[in-house]
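Please produce the structure of this protein holding zinc ion.
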Amino acid sequence: MPRVVLSIVLFVLASSACSRGASSSAPTAADAKAFLATVNETTLKLGIEANRAGWVQQTYITDDTEALAARTGQAANDAGARFAKEATKFDHVDVPPTERRELTVLKTALVVASPSDPKESDELSKIMARLESMYGKGKWCPEPSKPESCKTIDDVTRIMATSRNERELRAAWEGWHTIAPPMRKDYERFVELSNKGARELGFADTGAMWRAKYDMPPDAFTSELDRLWNQVRPLYVKLHAYTRLRLREKYGDVVPANGPIPAHLLGNIWAQEWTNVYPLVAPPNADPGFSLTDILKKRDMPPLDMVRTGERFYTSLGFAVLPKTFWERSLFVRPRDRDVVCHASAWDVDLESDLRIKMCIEQTADDFTTIHHELGHNFYQRAYKDLPVLFRDSANDGFHEAIGDTIALSVTPEYLVRIGLLDKAPDMSRDLGLLMTRALDKISFLPFGLLIDQWRWQVFSGEIAPASYNKAWWDLRLKYQGVAPPSARGEELFDPGAKYHVPDNTPYTRYFLADILQFQFHRALSQIAGCKLPLNRCSIYESAAAGQRLNAMLSMGLSRPWPEALDALTGTKQMDATAILDYFAPLSTWLDEQLKGKPVGW
Ligand SMILES: [Zn+2]
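Below is the modeled complex.
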C-alpha cells in the first residue's frame, strides 16, 4: 500500500504569508476561550469547503475543479497558519486543560511556519512550490536529445520492480537521482527560512516543531523511536542477510557476501519496500494453496458487495452501519466518462457524518484488503465526530493509518472461511509465503521510515551542515538499512531530493509509527478477542469485546495525549514493537535455519 496520508485532515497546512496579529492589552482566559470558539467554527467551515472542492476535483478532474480545490485548500492553509501564530499569544495565560490542549494542537499542527517578514515568507512559499514542482516534473532522460526517451517516476518504478538486469537497474537508479541536484540550493535556503518561522513560534527549529506533536519532549521522542527500532532490528538484520544471500545468487559479486546490499537491487527506487523481489527470495513450498483474487473473479463479486463485506466486518465488532449517504456519494468504480484520482482514500466531508470512500475497485485480493483499510479511517472519523473540531483527528499522526492496517491484518484465511469465501483454511505450514511477502513490505520499510526524519531533524537542527547533506544521508542509510549506493555519491548530488517527501516537505515518522502500532493493536485486540492461534492467523471479526476496546480508543480522537489513547486499547501507555516479533515468529525461526553458518549484518 502506498505510503501517503489518506485521511483528509482539517487543514493541509503548507505555508503562507501572514503577519502576527498585534494586540495592545494582555490577553486573558476569556480571550482564549473566544479565540478557540472562532477557530473551531472557522476550521469547520473552511474544512468542509476544502473537502467538498477536493472531492469534486479528485472525482471530476478539470482545470476548473483544480482551481477551485487549490483556492479552498489555500484558504484553509492560510487560516491554519494564522491561528497557529495567534495561539502563541496565550502561551502564558492560565486556561483550563482542554483549552490548553486545543492551543497546543493548533501550534503544532503546522508543518512549516512562515517567518513574519513578508519578503522572507514570500520567498519561502516560492521555494516550496519550486521544490515540489522540480520533483513533480522530474524525469530521467537517457537520451537528452530525444524527449520521447524521458522516463517519469512511474516508468522508473516499473523498471525497478520488474527488471532483473543489473546494468539496467543501475542506469534507472542513477537516472532518477539526476532530478535532485538542482534542488540542493533551494533546500538549503528552505531550511534557513522555515527554521526562522519555527523560532518565531517558540520552537528551536522546524524539526523540533514536528516532534512537539507527540506529547513528549522532542529528545525523549527521539530516544523512544530508537528503543522501538532496537526491538525490531534483529529481525530486520536477519531478513536483510537472507535477502542478500539470495540476491548474491542472482547477481553475483556485485552483492557483497557480508556488506551492505546495493540500493538498486531491492525492487524499489528507494529500497523502502522489497516486495518486488519476492520471487527471488520466496521460501520453497510457500504457496498458500488458494488465491483470493481468483475466488473473487470466479464468483464475479460486484465491487459494492466487496464494500458491504468490509462494512460487515465493522458491524460484527458492534459499530453502527454506514450512513445511507455513504452508499450514495462514494466512488466505488472507475467512471467511464471522465478522469478521476483512483488512488484509494477515505473522506469525512462534513467532519461529522458525510463519510465516503473513493476507490476504483477491481476484483483483487489487494482491493478487498484495501476496502477494509479505508473503512477503518471512516469508522475512526465517525467515532470522534462529537469532539471539538480541533480534536477530530487521530491520537497522533501514526494512528490513523495504523487503524486501517490493523483491520487489514484481520483479513486472514480463517476470516475468509467465516464469511464463506474459502472452504478451508490452508495448513499453517503454508504461512511462510504470506509472512515473507508481508515482511518484505512491513519489516523492510521500518529503517527507511525512521531515517528520513533522522536526516531532516539533524538538517534542521544544524547537526548536519549543507556541506555534508549527501554524506550524512548515505551514512544513515548504511546505519539503518544496510544499503549502499551503486556508485560513489559526492556533495555535488542531493540524493534525499529524489524521495518525494523531502522536496514536498511531508513529515515521515508517522509511517514508521503506523507500522509499529498496527501490530501492537492487532496483538492486543486478538488477545481481547480470545484468539489462541498464532498471531498471524488471528482475526478479530465478530468480537464485540475487541470492538468495544477499539471504539474506546477511536472515540478519544486527538483529545488526550496519545499514550492515553494507546492505553485505552492496549492497556499500556508505551509503544511496543515486540508484537512484530510475535507476528513474524514462524518466519524468524525459518530465517534462523536458513542463515546457519552464513554472514549476518553488514
Ligand atoms: Zn490509509
